[in-house]
Design a protein that fits this description.
Blueprint lengths: L1 E5 L3 H13 L3 E5 L2 H10 L4 E5 L1 E2 L2 E2 H10 L5 E6 L4 H9 L4 E4 L4 H17 L5 E3 L2 E4 L4 E4 L2 E2 L4 H12 L4 E3 H9 L10 H16 L6 E4 L3 E4 L4
Parallel strand pairs: 1-2, 1-3, 3-6, 6-7
Antiparallel strand pairs: 4-5, 8-9, 9-10, 10-11, 12-14, 13-14
Length: 226
């Protein structure tokens, strides 16, 4: 998953980022309204974790903007105990869940996973596309019921593709999903071609079809449609 955490407490922000990255996610951060607003408007995310009280604005306005622009993303509010009214308002304007500070990082992680399952896989812990099945929480992929051994980046790509099947994914979107903020240091997308070549080869070795369709000069589409 690609997650943006919006929180002005530097230590909490760092703790959340470290925990979620150790769980295998791409985690970006923003410590104020301005940077959060900019990132939400430019980059795609699977989940937003939003603190309501920010030094230069409110997380509620970010939620409103997400809904106004019809951005497809899950939203979890994190807020102080005395912010009941704001939490209720946040849910009313479109947030999916909330946690009251202080909270256990493991609970935040569990809620993120549950929300992602609801949005991407209708609540299922396994997603199936023809002969390919993926168990996201266990980082396992099977082709024709045989385990597909992948690197982390290869798993992230196949997971991203299946979650967005039949949709055009630009090279930029794939790169940002894999690397997050670090993509700004990359001067080409050749690494994508390498990962895709390895992924195609491994799937073929297990008797799987090639569903990765190249869209010339734009990107790729994962589909079984002509």
């Amino acid at each position: 998953m690609k997650i943006l955490v919006i929180e002005d407490n530097a230590q909490l922000l760092e703790d959340i980022k470290k925990f979620l990255e150790e769980e295998g996610n791409v985690c970006e951060v923003a410590s104020d309204f301005r940077s959060a607003y900019m990132k939400v408007g430019i980059f795609p995310y699977d989940i937003l974790v939003i603190d309501i009280t920010l030094p230069d604005g409110t997380g509620l306005d970010i939620i409103k903007e997400v809904k106004k622009e019809d951005i497809d993303v899950g939203i979890i509010i994190i807020s102080a105990k005395n912010a009941v009214g704001d939490r209720i308002h946040g849910l009313e304007i479109g947030a999916d869940d909330y946690l009251t500070k202080p909270f256990y990082l493991a609970e935040l992680n569990a809620r993120i996973k549950a929300l992602y399952r609801r949005k991407a896989y209708n609540g299922s812990k396994e997603v199936v596309f023809n002969e390919i099945s993926i168990k996201p929480e266990r980082h396992e992929v099977f082709v024709n019921q045989r385990p597909l051994v992948l690197t982390k980046k290869e798993f992230d790509i196949i997971h991203f593709f299946v979650a967005n099947k039949n949709r055009l994914l630009t090279k930029e979107a794939i790169a940002e999903h894999l690397w997050g903020d670090a993509i700004e240091m990359v001067d080409s997308y050749k690494f994508i071609y390498t990962h895709l070549a390895n992924l195609r080869k491994k799937i073929a070795e297990l008797g799987g079809d090639d569903y990765i369709k190249s869209i010339y000069s734009v990107g790729y589409k994962f589909t079984d449609q002509e």
